[in-house]
Design goal:
Largest sheet of chain A: 4 strands, antiparallel
Number of helices of chain A: 3
CATH class of chain A: Alpha Beta
Shape of chain A: globular
Number of domains of chain A: 1
Number of strands of chain A: 4
Distance between the termini of chain A: 14 Å
Oligomer: homodimer
Chain lengths: 96, 96
């Protein structure tokens, strides 16, 4: 199991522009057979700070996601409106 | 619904010390009646970077969590081993 947190920082005046792009990205990604979870959230203190919480069975599934037509098309359109570089954390479950 | 990401940064030589404290915190917190999800992860690139992904019904439930005996006892014990200040993001679900 691979858990991912991916954070984007969008210019506040572009939030309305990116909302439909994020919506489309979420819809398509959830249809990927290997996608376990792909949930998007917004920072309560910053409407331009978008946070994905993702779950994939393994790294290969995440890498395949990043090569899909919807990812390749939509992410560059979103990134045009970044105000700073996004971040990604790949995580393992805590050893219970 | 309130989603939370809380990140801790622990000195690498203290990771073994904090693991049982985190384990106890997770166990107790999951027993709080209002807790929807309280999952802990570790950054694949940094074994001292711990990430909670939490879900609460509302802010009052999160605030109550932070006043529980287990939180009040365990979090200061963990924080003794911080190498930098932790971060917390309170998030709303993306408007689908």
């Amino acid at each position: 199991m691979l858990k991912v947190i991916a954070e984007d920082f969008i210019h506040l005046d572009a939030v309305e522009t990116v909302l439909p792009l994020y919506r489309e990205l979420v819809e398509h990604t959830r249809q990927e057979p290997a996608c376990i979870a792909y949930d998007l959230f917004v920072d309560q203190k910053d409407p331009g700070h978008f946070i994905f919480v993702e779950e994939w069975p393994h790294r290969a599934a995440l890498d395949a996601h990043c090569r899909t037509p919807h990812f390749s098309r939509l992410v560059p359109l979103i990134n045009r409106h970044q105000r700073q570089e996004g971040t990604v954390i790949l995580m393992d479950a805590f050893p219970a």
